[in-house]
Every structure is written in structure tokens, then in C-alpha cells.
Design goal:
2 copies of one chain form a homodimer. Helix content of chain A is 35%, strand content 28%. The first copy, chain A, is an alpha+beta fold. In chain A, helix 2 (35-51) crosses helix 9 (277-288). Chain A contains 10 helices and 14 strands.
């Protein structure tokens, strides 16, 4: 007899469905969210807004699609080709259309009837921002506030590994000292916020899931230089807690790519921090139970003041 | 000398950019939205929520991506193949990855290195709903409240014709009488709401942009049967006002496809109504000017009570 795993991913997913928090989809990584799930997600996102309200961030909002050239330009196909989504479309006429419909009816492939478009799915909400920062930044740099949908091509039945999900993100562009100080402030704020929400959260250095053999070196380098941190909460595993919040220091990568200068004349440095809104929400349900009415009063007060 | 066209699309777009309402993109139909644009959009969406607050709609939320099989199942590739977006992804290893990067560097096509995935872009926020209604509906049917991003592959520099935009939508499923009565209530409500916001709005019968030669017949049929209505406001043309709101009566199309039964045992009928949130917002800026502080007090009170 095997001991019951309190972090079993399938049991967690089934519970989300049973409580109508998740509306099951028909393909892995894509599913609907119910009213109560959204109430928690929006409550948390509003709480982040209140915490950041004195920072005078500029709000920008971008669609879940971007110019494919942007994905090429930022090096996404170099680092994460396996996670990218590229949009293809049908450009044929009546004859090709008849062919297309016949193939769909017969359950045959129809990929070759489509053409690559100029559009990709947005892999991180910050990518479209940098082109808007080109030029010389003001004295204190700039801070941008973003919420949006992102795409990661890693279909999985595991509920925290979604193909499409929302991020609440802040992007800081300035000189190195200012950017690092901002990143450090949010490292404390982010961890503190999650602890106040009663989550067993821990901060750790991290690395991205870079592609291929060369990617292993990039990941090791990122860890060595402490360029990425994550806040982790156990959701579907006690040993491998889930990243619900991450901090990335890009050094001058985007400053160079998009010709952004700090006020001191040097190439601007950038950093971003983001909450995975669905993962945060799932962490709350895992920790406090599937019925929000039974959550601790202090938590409810923070989410819905 | 040509007379100045007060509805010139390019001038309207340039004004949106000048006032930081729109953050220009690098490919047609994809652009960012600024803080003031979002303030109007959210103000309007909240106003719709208040108007619908006594309707007891169930909230559901879906990502901007769906199962490709759903797009096939609902007949979207039959009616609107030219507007669909299908996601392709890279499934190769290190050698193919080197090839991919070489081609991107040389500006050569790399479409053939990708494979069709199981995922499509969501063309209308209501499609993922119907699978959640399968079975027999309660006595009064069901009403679902949705907000989400949709994709239409019609890249254009014309600002109201976006590739990616948001819809606020309601879906009603019940017996025919109930559905038609609900549709008629919203026809009045929708027009009334826009008139109260000071927009020169008009209701008209309409048809969808069905594909190809066969599509012309479908569109004529849709008009004859008065299955589609739109509320129109002049934004980039006085002669061809922009649809900012539409009402679609699907009869038993989705009821049959998803095996939804009304409480009376018959195949359920469905209808939906949706506001194009970006188009509504643009109609407001076109009508009241680009500076919200100068808008009529009555309008500001409705948007930000």
C-alpha cells in the first residue's frame, strides 16, 4: 500500500474542477476559470496594485500576440524555441477551402494549407515594452506596470503548467544601481506579501529552462551570477515547490537590443518582476482550502478589503 | 484642394498615438494601450457589469487559446477560415535548432521547421462556453458572463480593425422564446447605454464576413432571418459606421453541436451579445475628444461613479 501523497497533482486538479474553480478543457494546459477562482486572482492582483501604488509606475497593456520579428529580435528562438507559439493562417481561395474542409471532415492533416503569419504568441508580458523605452531615460529611469496573457508551449495535465496564463509584471529600466536596488526591494516585498497571505513561501536563486545542450551552460551562468530569483510555494509537490513569482535581472541585454540609454549616458540596464497570477491563485487554494469562505479572516481582509 | 475628412482613419490613429492612448506596434493590427485608454475601457466594462448585475449571470473566463478541435467542431474553418489563427511550434533538437537560428540570422523562412500544434487562437469568447453547457439546462436556462481576448487574422493599419482585441460578452442558452426575449432586451439595453454615453449610435441588421462564394449566400440568409444585429457608431467613416456591439441568434447550432437540451426537452437555442471593448473605447475618444478630463460630466459619472 502506497501512502497518500497530499500533493498529488491529479487530485489537486480534480478538486479545482469539483469546486468549479477550474472548468476542464479538452486539451492539456488550456482550461477555463470559474467565478471564485477569478475573485481570488483579481483580489490578489488588486492587492499588488495597492502595494505598488506609491511607485508611480506607468501602466501599459499589450495583447497576447506580438510581431514575430520581436520574438526573433529578443533572442527568444535562441533561448526558448520549444516554448514559442507562431501563428499560421489560411490564405487560400475557394478550391483550397474545399480541400481544407474535406481534410477536416476526414480527420486528415491540414497544416500544409496554412502559411506562417507575421504574428507570434507573447511569451512574457514585458517583451513588447522595451521598444517603447528606446532613447534616453529620465533621471530616475522608468517603471512600467503590466498585466497580460502569455503563451508557453508545454502542454501538460499538471494544473500549474499552463499553456496560456496571466502575469502581473513590473519592468524597471535605469542605471545599474537603481535597477538592482529596485529588484532587491521587490525581492523583500514579494516574499513578505506571500508570507502575509499565509503561504509557506521561500526565496531561492533560479534559472530559466534554456533549450538544448548549450542551454545548460546559460542556466549555470544565470545561477552563478544570481540573475534570477523565484518565490516558491508547495502546490503539487513538497520537494519541488512551484515558482509563483520571479525576478529577472537582464543587465544590458534589452538596453542594447532596443537602444535604451540611462540618464548618465550609459546603456540602460533592466530588470523585471512578475507574479504568475494563476499559480498564485492555485497556491492560495492549496494552502487555505477550496472554499474561500473558510479562509483565515486576515487573508480575506487583504484580498477583499 | 480636397476637403478635410473628419473621419480620416490615419489621422484618428495618429491622434490616439499622440495622446498616448495607443502605443504603436510594429506590425498591423497589434499595438499597446496606454493608461488613459485602459481607464475608459475598464470604466465601460464596469458599467456593463452594473447594468447586468440583476441578471445573475455565471462568470466564466477562458484563455486567448482554445483546443484546435473546438475550432473544427464549431464550423469556424467552414465559415471564417481566413480569420483563424493556428499555433505552430518547434519540436526539433539541437541540429534543427542550429538550422533555425541560422535562417533567422539570414532572414530566410523557417516555417517548415515548425509543426502544427493542437491549439488555435480564440476567435470569439463564447466558443469555449458551449462544451460547459452540455446536458439538460435548468428551468430558466443559463446565462454566462465573459470577458476575453479574441484573434481575427485581418492585419490592417486601420485602428478599429485589430488582430487581437477584447470582447465583453453574454451567452444565453434556453428554449427559443426565452432566448429571443433576452436578445431583444439587450438590443434595447445596448443601444440605450450607448446613447446615454453620448454616442451617435444606431441599431441595424447585419451579417458576418463569411468566406468565399458560398459565404455570400450564408450572409444573405443571416440578414433575411434577422439573426444578427449590430450597434454602429461613426469612428473612421461617416458612411460606414463601426460595429461596437453585436447580437447573434444561433438558433439550435450550438445546442445540436454540444448536445444541450432546454428544460422542455427540446434542443436548446442560444444567442450571444458582445461589446468590442477597444472599439467602444475608440468610439468614446472619437465622439468626446482625446482628453477625458474634457468629457461631459454625465459621461464621466457613468464611467467612473
Amino acid at each position: 500500500m502506497t501512502a497518500h501523497d497530499p500533493y498529488d497533482p491529479k487530485e489537486f486538479y480534480d478538486n479545482l474542477v469539483k469546486h468549479k474553480l477550474v472548468l476542464p478543457g479538452t486539451t492539456p494546459g488550456i482550461f477555463g476559470r470559474g467565478a471564485e477562482f477569478e475573485k481570488v486572482l483579481l483580489g490578489f492582483n488588486n492587492l499588488v496594485s495597492r502595494i505598488a501604488s506609491d511607485d508611480s509606475a506607468e501602466l501599459m497593456l499589450f495583447p497576447p500576440c506580438v510581431d514575430r520579428k520581436l520574438i526573433e529580435k529578443v533572442g527568444y528562438m535562441k533561448s526558448f524555441p520549444h516554448l514559442a507559439g507562431t501563428v499560421f493562417s489560411f490564405c487560400g481561395h475557394d478550391a483550397q477551402h474545399r480541400d481544407l474542409l474535406g481534410r477536416i471532415q476526414d480527420g486528415k492533416p491540414w497544416a500544409d494549407l496554412l502559411e506562417m503569419s507575421d504574428i507570434s504568441l507573447t511569451p512574457a508580458v514585458c517583451y513588447p515594452v522595451y521598444g517603447n523605452l528606446t532613447g534616453t531615460l529620465p533621471e530616475k529611469g522608468r517603471l512600467v506596470d503590466l498585466t497580460g496573457w502569455v503563451y508557453r508551449h508545454e502542454p501538460s495535465p499538471e494544473p500549474t503548467r499552463m499553456v496560456s496564463f496571466r502575469m502581473r509584471e513590473f519592468v524597471r529600466a535605469a542605471d545599474a544601481d537603481t535597477v538592482i536596488e529596485w529588484r532587491n526591494t521587490w525581492k523583500e516585498r514579494g516574499l513578505q506579501l506571500l508570507l502575509e497571505l499565509g503561504l509557506p513561501a521561500k526565496l531561492d536563486t533560479a534559472s530559466d529552462a534554456f533549450f538544448g545542450r548549450g542551454g545548460k551552460m546559460l542556466a549555470a551562468n544565470q545561477r552563478d551570477q544570481q540573475l534570477k530569483f523565484e518565490v516558491l510555494v508547495p502546490v503539487i509537490s513538497a520537494e519541488n515547490p512551484t515558482a509563483v513569482c520571479s525576478f529577472n535581472y537582464h543587465q544590458d541585454h534589452f538596453g542594447k537590443t532596443f537602444d535604451i540609454k540611462a540618464a548618465n549616458g550609459e546603456v540602460a540596464q533592466t530588470a523585471c518582476m512578475a507574479f504568475g497570477l494563476e499559480r498564485m491563485t492555485m497556491a492560495m487554494f492549496k494552502t487555505h482550502g477550496f472554499v474561500t469562505a473558510q479562509w483565515p479572516e486576515s487573508v480575506k481582509k487583504l484580498l477583499w478589503p
